[in-house]
Design goal:
With 465 residues, the protein is mostly helical. The chain is built from 17 helices and four strands. This is Probable peptidoglycan glycosyltransferase FtsW.
Length: 465
């Protein structure tokens, strides 16, 4: 009987752990530390996997196995600089920068689409690699090269849309409930971005759509607006898919519509899929996942990345991770993205400033939606769209912009009311504030509600006395 009473009195392991977890999450800066830890670990995993996927090929090409990872490390360093800068910028500066970032992205997208359209019309000729030149400017599908600098304007468009859209909606305030307030200027700019981005990249257009949905959801827009957005988005995707048969983007006039083939390949059974067509990448990616099993074949020991899985270091790096680290490695990456999503939406919920709340929700929606679309395409649950996996896939523009977005989230986390009070109550040394981040401003105290004014009304005439 005594043993039974002891067993009943002893709390279970889950009941012992949950108070500790709740205690850690209740700390003022828990959102900040969760965000930094998840993004930092994803970046380290990405650098490791890019080296694993490119070392042998780089050695065979130029005798230096570290050439590709060196380039990726430079972009990671630039991303950390962008993180540091955005973490230090106040909200008023970010709101001012939004229109300039978005305007620059629209101009670069117009230039990129113009060069690709002139290539499709045979006004400009492309070289053997598909690069079209116009003086010092070069274009190749999603990439625009200005001199020796390459950039993806669509990545810059995401960041610009976050800052400008959050600023516009925050300024409208309660007037956002009226349809005409959304119609101008938000919807025309969104429609223009859909056309400019979707001309070359339907996948990025879907991420933009998810970003805008997250922005409007955080603003409390009515559900019928989302229905209208969904209809317009599907109509736009249909038009862009049809335009591929006329040479839009990387399509060829009169050839098979490659966008339809890529978007519908995941619906076909593997035994009925054309190995030499759009299903090749999907089949090779699944083969790499099957080879990995539960614990993987070992880091760097995967064989299918050497010429079998196309874009092994970019779009399909998740399949290489599954082959070398197995289900365990994939679960770790999923858990890190889950922590990133939790911390991002927690920051949005706890932010007192409307701009910070809207921007945090849209950034988190953007990163999570892109990760879901990429991983879903690799495992065969969603269409293949060619999107990189945030923080992990090789690439410069995507990594730098994603790190800048995380830097803004970190700034918003430090500006949470409880976090701001805690940081100002025990301020760090001056050199730490100069090197890392300044103290966030203290939230304004809540004013007590004013007492209602007593009014006396004379019966019959309704005049105040």
């Amino acid at each position: 009987m005594a043993d039974d009473r002891t067993e009943k009195a002893r709390p279970s392991l889950s009941r012992q752990l949950l108070p500790a977890v709740h205690g850690l999450l209740a700390r003022p800066l828990s959102s900040y530390y969760l965000l930094i830890a998840s993004a930092g670990m994803l970046l380290l995993i990405g650098l490791t996997m890019v080296f694993s996927a490119t070392s042998v090929r780089a050695y065979a090409a130029n005798g230096n196995a570290f050439s590709d990872i060196t380039s990726q490390a430079v972009f990671a360093l630039l991303g950390l600089v962008a993180f540091w800068v955005c973490q230090r910028l106040p909200a008023i500066t970010l709101r001012t920068l939004g229109k300039y970032v978005l305007g620059t992205a629209i101009l670069l997208l117009c230039l990129l689409d113009l060069l690709n359209a002139l290539k499709g019309l045979h006004v400009l000729q492309a070289d053997a690699n598909g690069v079209v030149r116009a003086g010092p400017i070069k274009a190749n599908l999603l990439w625009l090269y200005l001199g020796g600098i390459g950039i993806q304007p669509s990545e810059l468009a995401k960041l610009g849309m976050v800052l400008w859209g959050a600023d516009v909606i925050a300024r409208k305030g309660p007037a956002l409930g009226h349809w005409r307030e959304l119609a101008m200027p938000l919807f025309p700019v969104v429609g223009l971005l859909f056309v400019l981005v979707g001309y070359n990249d339907v996948g990025t257009m879907l991420v933009l759509l998810a970003l805008i949905v997250g922005l409007l959801w955080a603003a409390g827009v009515r559900l019928r607006v989302f229905g209208a957005l969904g209809v317009l988005g599907l109509a736009g995707i249909g038009l862009l898919i049809a335009a591929a048969s006329r040479g839009a983007g990387s399509g060829t006039d009169g050839a098979e519509n490659y966008r339809v083939a890529r978007l519908t390949a995941f619906l076909k059974p593997l035994d009925k899929c054309d190995l030499d067509g759009a299903c090749y990448q999907l089949i090779m990616g699944r083969s790499a996942i099957f080879e990995g099993g539960w614990f993987g074949v070992g880091l760097g020991k995967g064989a299918l990345k050497w010429g079998w899985v196309p874009e092994a270091e970019n779009d399909f790096i998740y399949s290489i991770l599954a082959e070398e680290l197995g289900v365990v490695g994939c679960t770790v990456v999923l858990a890190l993205f889950s922590v990133l999503a939790y911390s991002g939406f927690r920051i949005a919920r706890r932010s007192a400033d409307p701009f910070r709340r809207l921007a945090a929700a849209s950034i988190t929606t953007w990163l999570v939606a892109q990760a879901v679309i990429n991983m879903g395409g690799v495992v065969g649950l969603l269409p293949i769209t060619g999107l990189p996996l945030p923080f992990i896939s090789a690439g410069g523009s995507a990594l730098v912009v994603a790190m800048a977005a995380v830097g803004m989230l970190a700034s918003f986390a430090r500006a949470e009311p409880d976090a701001a009070r805690a940081l100002n109550a025990r301020p760090t040394p001056r050199w730490v504030r100069l090197v890392w981040a300044p103290l966030p401003p203290l939230p304004s105290p809540r004013r007590p509600a004013a007492e209602p004014v007593k009014k006396s009304v004379k019966a019959g005439d309704g005049r105040r006395r």
